[in-house]
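Put briefly, the fold is written as integer tokens. The lines below illustrate.
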Amino acid sequence: MSNLFDLSGKVAIVTGSTKGIGKAIATAYADHGAKVVITSRDAGRCEATRAELAARGEVVAIPANASRKAELETLVAGTRKAFGRVDIVVCNAAVNPYYGPSLAMPDATFEKLMNANILANIWLVQMVAEEMKARRDGTIILMSSIGGAFGTDVIGAYAVSKAAVRQVARNLAVELGPDNIRVNCIAPGLVKTDFARALWEDPSYVEPRLKRTPLRRLGEPGDIAGAAVFLASPAAAWMTGQTITVDGGATVVV
């Protein structure tokens, strides 16, 4: 049964993998035998993360801004140069440049958010789909959020983008399933990352949330990594188009 979670020989790109959830996923993949590409727009942080994970397996760093198509093309080309193929893609990179009511948000901010959180994911999948089709094997994991399931007056556009990501996964699962390419989502709850700091450092937001969360704590990046290993592994071979929620039970409370 241990072989169900073996990623040996697989090549994984994890965007936004120099900190937080992305770094935790990249670390878990290396620990389970995958060859891992570390990438974010910060070249120095990419190299530092690569050096940190080097003892765990084959890891390379390829800096790229995931919201720029040309840099994603460079990322995919660099991965193929380093490892010859792409088996697993985790679209973890995202932005949330605005905290406040949607009615006051500038158009340019909304467009930036949708481009980075939705369109960029589609670009990256387009870039790897043909080689996965040729092998009749591949795994795509998109990062949604429980925020995409509720109304909010502080992260409205982000929530819209994360709701859309779930639908993107369903659509791509239908399109790519006949070629044995699986596409799934992970929807984390509130995790203690730099990205979500504005939320978990706001007592008026986080304290009522903790009281309603069955496990009575916020998530840590490592709490999400197990779901990412599962979705990339043979254990999830008959699973596609789905969203796994990892939130300490927050969404089961009325």
